[in-house]
Each structure stands twice: as structure tokens, then as C-alpha cells.
Amino acid sequence: QAKARGRNRLSFFEPAIQDALMRRSRLEADLRAAVTREEFTLYYQPQVDHTGTLVGAEVLVRWNHPHAGLVPPGEFIPLAEETSLIGPIGRQVLEQACSRIAHWNSLGLGQSLTIAVNVSAVQFRDPTFVTQVLDLLSRHGIDPSRLKLELTESLILDDVQGSIVTMNRLKAEGVGFSMDDFGTGYSSLSYLKRLPLDQLKIDRSFVEDVTTDPNDAVIVRTIIAMSRSLGLDVLAEGVERPEQRAFLVANGCQVFQGYLFSPPVDTSTFEAMLTGRIGFVPSRR
Ligand code: C2E
Ligand code: MG
Ligand code: MG
Ligand code: MG
């Protein structure tokens, strides 16, 4: 009732806000239906080492909307997180990713690749998360070390001790962890060394101007040095130009992801890359 009254008052002063609220509740209803209809589809973005060899891929979800077409995650993941629809969406993403890996295994494809999946805070904090992941892996007969979970700094910082416990349970079975968008949060060395991480993923925002902005160059060099002293792998995301790749290689970063190599591609395109039927196709941008 209070809500209804609030809404009336808003409509009296601010029709634009009521519009926005209406769009949002329509989107939420659509998203709820999308979960039931399983309208999510996975794209794969190649991860490549300094020799140009495919070493893995990041799974990036898209919503295949019946009218709007492919909706990028930035347009529905935040709402999914607020409405806890992220729980079932995250489960569908993991399920699809695992059944793909199992399918590739059955064809003898990409068996040395690590597949990285993004995990949201709400999903990670679910007390059943660990058993969900382990059940999926065993149901599909997948070696847990094929899976890497991407967590953000803010997710971990929110509850460092709880995160360590959850990570350790999965880590004990072989699941890997990468810290996504690294450098955009408030990580300190003191807790970084307590986390059972395998990889730091340098945020695209630092890679963008790394060859022209001395501050970004220092940050990127520091992250690379930090990962080395912690014994972690380091991957640079958002690599778009050869100069960026050259800088990264010269400074000791040996795994890359970005439009220079390939944008995220649909399943059949990625499978064509796995069979070697097609090479990487850089994004024109
Ligand atoms: P992210 O995990 O940092 O993923 C990287 C984003 O950068 C992707 O955007 C990718 O398409 C984009 N990208 C890759 N290479 C380049 C490049 O060279 N240049 C530029 N400008 N961009 C590049 P996308 O697919 O729109 O995903 C956005 C974000 O949505 C992801 O950021 C991730 O945080 C989230 N997300 C995606 N899939 C999932 C999912 O299954 N679950 C959850 N919880 N979040 C997801
Ligand atoms: Mg990611
Ligand atoms: Mg990222
Ligand atoms: Mg990012």
C-alpha cells in the first residue's frame, strides 16, 4: 500500500520516473519468464598465450530475448542480482557450460582448455553453491581443474573469511579461481596472499591506455609483479591492439583475452576454432 501511494506520488511529480519503474518491472517479468523458458545462451571468448595458442575461454552469457534479440549481460545481470534471479540464471550458465565441456570431451576436443565462468556474489554466497558445482562436475564427468570460477574483488572483500572457506572447499577438488577486473577494487597484498587464487585478471581499463598513460603502465607492471611474487598466473583482458600485447609480453604477462584475438563467439564458431576449421577472427572495432 505504501508502495502504491509512493508510486502515485511519483507519477504526480515525475512521469519519467514512473516510466522507468514500469520498464524495470516489465524487464523483471520478462527475465523471470526467461529463466523458466531457459532463454540464456553462452558465448565463448578465447584466451590465448604469448605463442598464439588457445589455452582457455571465458563463458559470457547472453539473453536470447524473443523480440529484442541477444541482450548483453550488462543489461540484465544487475537486475538479476537485485531480484535474486541470478541464482537460477547462474545455475543454468554452469549447467550449460558443463554439458558443453562434456560434449567436447566426447569428441576429444579442447581437453587441455580451462573454461572460466563468472560467478555473482548472491550465487557464491548460496550455502548450496559448493555442492551444486561439484554435483554438476561429477554428473558430467568433468575433471574439476577444467573449470575456473571468476570472482570479483568486491565479492571477496564483502566476506573474506567466508570466501576463503567456500573457495577452499572447491579448490580441494581441483576447481580454479581467477580474480576478475583486478585493480578496480581495494585488494591489499595482505589478504591476497591468504586467498586460494590461481590467477589475477588485469582489468581492461588499465590495459586500454597502457602504452600511452604512464600511470596505467605502472599499475599493470605492478599487478604482473604482484602475481609473480604470489605465484599466480596473470591474464590481461581487453587486449585490442598489438602494442598492448607487446607491452604485456615485455613485462611478463603471457595470457591474453580481447578483440585483438577474438570477440566472444557463439558455440558453433568456438567449436570451429576447436577443430581448427577456422582460426581466430579479430574483432573490427
Ligand atoms: P567481464 O567478466 O569482465 O567480461 C569481459 C567483458 O569484456 C565481456 O563483456 C567481453 O565481451 C568484453 N570484452 C572482451 N574483450 C574485449 C575487448 O578487447 N575490448 C572491449 N572493449 N571489451 C572486451 P560482456 O560479454 O558484455 O560481459 C560483461 C560482464 O557481464 C562481464 O564482465 C561479467 O562481469 C558479466 N557476465 C557475463 N556473463 C556472466 C555470467 O554468466 N554470470 C555473471 N554473474 N556475470 C556475467
Ligand atoms: Mg569475467
Ligand atoms: Mg573482467
Ligand atoms: Mg571487466
From TrEMBL:
The chain holds residues 712 to 996 of 996 of the full protein. It comes from the Bacteria. Residues 24-278 form the EAL domain. It is found in: Cell membrane. This is PAS:GGDEF.
